[in-house]
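Bench notes, afternoon.
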Amino acid sequence: MPEKAPRSHGRARGRRTGLKTLEETLRKRSHEFTPAERAIAAYLRENFSSIPFETGASIATSAGVSEMSVIRFIRSLGFANLRELKDRLRASYPEEEQIVDDVLDRFQVRHDDVDHLRTSLELELCAVLKAYELVATDRWQKIVDLLTRRRFIHVAGFQATKGTALDFANRLKYARSGVRFAEGSAGTYSEVLESDPKESCLVLVDTVAYARRAPLLARKAKEMGLPVVIVTDRFSHWAYEFTDLVLEGYTHVKTFWDSTASLNVILNLLINSVAARLGAKAEDRFRLLGEFGDYFQEFERVRRPNGNGRNRPHRQQR
């Protein structure tokens, strides 16, 4: 059985270099991996902080492969054995636990009867922090460039993530025009695939238990020369087959269902970055759609404080 991971205190930021290098190696080599290796890589990337306290057998069980496959894969990454990998990861254990310690302590005090949720809370908070870290990456800036400069933005999501994708499309409309949610009701997705690839792009929102249509639409869009952005979770290694513009959220939180909170944070931050890049144009767009909503009497006006403590109008759907 895996050992229980102790709390981290005072890791230096510079010590995460090894972790970032390993993450990049797994990402760049993902197209070379066998199905078993992809499963192991996905599990490692999702659980870097707890791997130092696992065994080869526990990793194999969680990834659904043999222990020998785990050992061979670790050696292929340049490590002599699992111990060397664990030592590397232990030295790079994320310092963000320092940030969430106080929240976790207060949760423990107030909710002694649900102690089993403490691990989930810790994972959820770390997932949000990691989502914010994406904003500083070059990949993020490339995606924001697409979402601000392209005339049309097509958004698609399927099954469990359809609502998340639809919410993103509806709210992005308040920052810029030309945003379309692709229903695919005719079964052809012609509204996406017939658009000019020089003026359009596709944003796909999906997770590891992906719908069959997600990779099919991504593949066809790539063939048509349409830029593709995929927002997904850390287990979805399929995304890099179609684009480098992939934003991954941590969704594993040890609850009945995986949590999509990090995906919602990523999508909300994308809207914020687009609005910030567009500046006054986004403000004008927001006012215009607000006027449309007022005309159709869709919203109630309430007031809430802004970041400076002053009140500002806020629309709340009836």
